Predict the structure.
Amino acid sequence: MPTSVKILHTEPVTHDVRRYRVEKPDGFQFEPGQATEIALDKDGWRDETRPFTFTALPDADTLEFTIKSYHDHDGVTHELWSMQAGDALLLDEAWGTITYKGPGVFIAGGAGVTPFIAILRKLAADGKLNGHTLIASHKAEKDIILREEFEAMDGLDCIWTVTGQDGSPLDRGKIDKGFLQHHVRDFDQQFYVCGPDKMIDDIKSTLKDLGADADGITFEE
């Protein structure tokens, strides 16, 4: 049964991404990388559930979600953009298969980075980020989610690529076989992949071609 929780605070992360801090129900538990189904607790929206990832650490007093809004249609994320402190969301139980299984490479497409936020924050808090790499693809530099925070994490190697911005000093390549061969030295490690379905399928196939163990590739199933 979904639980109604109030939004406590919202703030911008990028031009189309916001951070939402909400009430945490008593006894609520989740693992970094997991998600939940959320609906807007308002007339006309309670049956429209969408999956969103927890981005705060499990021991925090409140829950946090970092959500990209798509304004090209009148959907849940577009409506969520206008909600403020005091408004309510309907929260379900935690679920998900993206959990930490050891050092490796996190590969994200756009908002697909969100399941990695809590995982990397936990590793940073524990001083265990050495040997981890984040590879994230976006259309433009303005779309990069939490760039400053990730770059400030001691031990995390950040590799950004933008596919739709002429003149950017960042890498502009697609995350394909050549890209991975150039940036990844060891394919005998863990890989975590999240993004659009086609991107996930392509990267999984490419990683296997490059020698990665299928059991060492974690993605949302």
The chain has a mean pLDDT of 96. The domain at 3-95 is CATH 2.40.30.10 (Elongation Factor Tu (Ef-tu); domain 3). The CA atoms of residues 89 and 127 lie 34 Å apart.
